[in-house]
Each structure stands twice: as C-alpha cells, then as structure tokens.
Write a structure and sequence with these properties.
Layout (H helix, E strand, L loop, with lengths): L3 H4 L8 E5 L2 E5 L5 H7 L6 E2 L6 E2 L12 E4 L2 E5 L10 E3 L1 E2 L6
Parallel strand pairs: 1-7, 3-8
Antiparallel strand pairs: 1-2, 3-4, 5-6, 5-7
The structure holds FE2/S2 (inorganic) cluster.
Length: about 100
C-alpha cells in the first residue's frame, strides 16, 4: 500500500520537532498542527466549555472552529489552518483557552 506522500509524489524537507503538552511530536515542513497531531495518533485536543466534550478536526477547512488549540501561547488557533514551525509549543485547550 502506498503512503499519502507517495501518492502525492511529495518530497518534503527533513522532519522537525514540536511539542504537544510537553510531549515531543515529529512534523514535516508544510504540515498543519492538525496534520501533525493526526500523524502522531492524536485525534482530540480541545474540550468544550460547557460539557467538556472532546473536539478535534471536523470540517478541516477553517470553517467550524472545532479544532481550536493553543500555539506558542496564542489560544484559539485553528489547528487545521496553522502551519507548524520547528520548536512550536502546542497545548490542548479547554473552553476559550484563556483560563490559564
Ligand atoms: S476543523 Fe473546522 S475549523 Fe478546523
């Protein structure tokens, strides 16, 4: 079975490291936060304000705001749109992300 990289004939640069709540995750250049988290097996990284229900990617195109995450201390970033850079610090988010 061919991988998505092979199917797209993609030749990304070398992988780099970011962290999710202190855990090191490998990312390829050009990947969004969501793509890197999915590749690492993480499918949920936010909980809703009221019932604290798990959320991750829903629309994948920046419309639904289900995938909100904190990136480099900036809360409410849409993981499906934000490209990663080496050393980025990602934190899972509860509610509005302004609770500390
Ligand atoms: S998954 Fe809908 S905005 Fe990111």
């Amino acid at each position: 079975m061919r991988t998505p990289l092979e199917l797209a004939d993609a030749h990304p640069g070398p992988a780099f490291t970011v962290t999710l709540d202190g855990r090191e995750i490998e990312a390829l250049p050009g990947r969004t936060v969501a793509a890197a988290l999915w590749a690492a097996g993480v499918t949920s990284w936010r909980s809703t304000r009221g019932e604290r229900r798990p959320r991750g990617v829903f629309c994948g195109i920046g419309v639904c705001f289900d995938c909100l995450v904190t990136v480099n201390d900036r809360p409410n970033q849409r993981a499906c749109l934000v490209p990663l850079h080496p050393g980025d610090v990602i934190r899972t988010q509860e509610g509005t992300g302004h609770d500390g």
